[in-house]
Amino acid sequence: MNISSPLESGRLYASDVDDDGRAKRTGTWLTASAHIITAVIGCGVLSLAWAVAQMGWIAGPIILLVFSLVTWFASALQADCYRNPTTGKRHYTYREAVRAVKRAICFHRMGHQAGCHTHNNQFLIIFGILQLLMSQLPNFHKLSWLSIVAAAMSFGYSFIGIGLAIAKVAGGSNARTSFTGVEIGVDVTAAQKIWNIFTALGNMAFAYAFSMVLIEIQDTLKPNPPENVVMKKSISVGILITTFFYLLCGVMGYAAFGNDASGNFLTGFGFFEPYWLVALANIFIAVHLVGAYQVFVQPLFDFVETQCTTKWPESKFVNAEYPVKLPLYGSYTFNFLRFVWRTAYVILVTIVAMIFPFFNDIVGLIGAFSFWPLTIYFPIEMYIAQGNARKYSWRWISLQVLKYGCLIVSLVAVVSSVRGLVVGVQNLKPFQSVS
Questions:
Q1: Omega within 30 of 0 (cis) for the link into 225
Q2: Is 315 contained in some domain?
Q3: How far apart are CA 306 and CA 116, in angstroms?
Q4: Could you report the per-residue pLDDT of 8-44, keeping only the tens digit for each?
Q5: Which of 45, 33, 39 shows the shortest CA–CA distance to 248?
Q6: CA-CA distance, 83 to 96, in Å (whole number)?
Q7: How far apart are alpha carbons 419 and 402 in whole angstroms?
Q8: Structural domain total, the chain
Q9: What is the CATH number of the domain that holds 16?
Q10: Strand, coil or helix: what is 13?
Q11: 309 and 318 in contact (C-beta within 8 Å)?
Q12: pTM of the full predicted structure?
């Protein structure tokens, strides 16, 4: 019996597909861990020394660990929402899983007899907007090799940064540090101290941002063992490894540069010898970000292109595929929509980045703005919507406390980052890089 498949390759036999008729998934806990590490360890690690400097030796590492534990917990809840507990149906993307939240609210208000069918709603729009940091591969399932390379790059520049920091400390950096971080009246005013701490919270939240691609990563896994079991293992491995490097980068960076730690960890080694080692670390970062960019951008591409296909099913510009033979690659399927809109997107994001070179405030704003809805709110609501926490039970109450506590943290971080951007814009010189 032939089973139809959405893949361009045409028909597949039963042995070549999973229970949903799609091409057989081959991902393992190792490839999923590589995806997570690639998604998590990125430019966020560069701001952690500055973030620790705002809080000091005690609060800095503790709060970083708290973000690690909260992210691990919320991600484990989200992993359990990959399949519908009643039908066993898969959710292929984060936005599909989120629909469970809307339907649960509808059932609560209208009764279980209501249809409660959902369309593309405001949550999908928010999800699309929050992906505006990302560029391009055919689909998420072909990213395993790139994620492994990118994860190796992240280890590379983390080790180099940590090694340089240790060497600087061993050589007598005489950096001025304290238990409470930057000093009021010496480094900053009291108001600046508070605002900087709030921005640092956003920076730490950004450093752990990967929930928006967690479902997509989970959808690459083999169905046996169960995907949620394998995914939880991958989450634990990924977050444990990244937290280890984050603590080393944050703590050793603060030890090396003290209260004068810059927003970008590696810029502090600008005149450090051997210079080639610093250059190599920056090359590693560039290669890593290529992979991380792809991991994060796929949900956005899928969202836009799916909507276009649904709205204009007869359009050749949107749907027509043209096979092209490329040297050293083989057959590549060209599509005008993919080419035009992805190219325009990359150009737009690059121009925006050149106009607004506010590293810490941008990182803090993105982290704070996306942390609560994507990492906390939706995973908790999905978990509750699937009947895993009875209302007013201790588990339900604990989840509500966590949800609203994180909301407060995100709000103050957003306000602080916006304030930093407003202050920065006053002296803005577009397209001029300042180092």
A1: yes
A2: no
A3: 22
A4: 444 445 567 777 777 788 888 888 888 888 777 766 7
A5: 45
A6: 11
A7: 26
A8: 1
A9: 1.10.4160
A10: strand
A11: yes
A12: 0.73
